[in-house]
Amino acid sequence: MTTSQTNPNALLHRRDVVNELVRARGELLVIAGLGAPNWDVSAAGDHANNFPLWGAMGAASMIGLGLALAQPKRKVLVITGDGEMLMNLGSLATIAVEAPPNLVVAVLDNERFGETGMQKTHTAAGVDLAAVATAVGIRASRIVRTMAEVTELRDLAHQGRGTAFAQIKIAPEALVFVMPPADGVILTSRFRQSVLGDEALYN
Amino acid sequence: MTEVAAKSAGATASPALPTWPDEIYRVLKDAGVKQVAMVPDAGHSRLIRSFEADPETRVVTLTTEEEGVAMLAGAWLGGERGVLLLQSSGVGNCINMLSLPTICHMPLLMIVTMRGDWGEFNPWQIPMGQGTRAALESVGVIVNKVDEPHLVASAVQGAAHLAFNTWKPVALLIGQRVLGAKNFKELARK
Q1: What is the pLDDT of residue B4?
Q2: What is the pLDDT of residue B1?
């Protein structure tokens, strides 16, 4: 299905990547950054254990940190975009210092601000997010270019054996929007009820 | 007033430390706070030391205050309560991120130590200090302020109950009247 199987230089397709990251998701908790990563995660299947963002650009990685600290027995996967990650690079330093073993941050890097007209982001000029993550202290940081590496990342996220970061190079393609509920109260309540049980409804 | 304070300190070598930082540590523990997100401020230093010595609390130092707003949203999604400790200058860094607790009906307790307020010596603190309340209110945060040391603990308790029982972002501003205004110019002369 993907051309990457025949052409080793072809960029990955974002929905193939996300489908693989959440394959057989079990108890995995997923935070999705605003814009296309939200639609990608939703296209893979709307789920109570997803918290897809519709705003608050720059929030995804730190929501992942707070959640990972609060739920040390659950695995947390943050799926966001290069623009969203660039808005809050400092959070990588904070995450590196806290180093929760159950947190993986995966950046879908199309080198573009996709929702606003495909303007180039800094990664198009060569800014290496994985090197930034390594430099601040997330040792398990990598650039991902093949589906085999995506599967490795999926396994890391599902196993929770240390904080990890990945910059996944994907094609700049504009796909159909697949939207989860937009109401933040619905997203929050269903996530908390799913993770914490019915008790969450009573505070 | 300075004279009275000096006299009441009497023969002791150092003036009595204010008790409110210890009181609000107890209040926040009673409120179930487990995650403390902060960019340090001198006014919060004693409270931060108490939390750092507490094995039940996770203290997370941030690179910018807005990180804490997102982090405590994640904490809430995972069933933990937290507090964000910041200086008023950091409030401006949080504004768009505050749409998260506002639109999701998540509790957020912010304890803001004021600058650019009573007795300020540094003109660069004035714009954000004077704009703190309006900035917070403009994005739907409920703002309380306390200016008397003996009222700080009850003000924190009230703000915590308001945030956690009604799922609202609430900021408590602790005025410079409570903290004592810094004067670096004095320090420079010494």
Answers
A1: 42
A2: 38
| This prediction's pTM | 0.93
CATH architecture group of domain B35-177: 3-Layer(aba) Sandwich (3.40)
Residue entry with tokens 């230093």: B45
In chain A, what are the domain boundaries? 3-202
Q: What is the domain class of A3-202 according to CATH?
A: alpha beta
Residues 102-161 (B) with a CB less than 8 A from some CB of A: 103-106
B38 and chain A: CB distance < 8 Å anywhere?
no
pLDDT of B188 over the 90 cut: no
Whether A45 and chain B come into contact, CB under 8 Å, resolves to no
List of chain B residues whose C-beta atoms are within 8 Å of the C-beta of residue A66: 35, 37, 70-78, 80, 82
**Prediction ipTM score:** 0.95
Indicate the pLDDT class of residue B5, thresholds 50, 70 and 90: very low
- Residues A1 and A46 sit within 8 Å (Cβ to Cβ): no
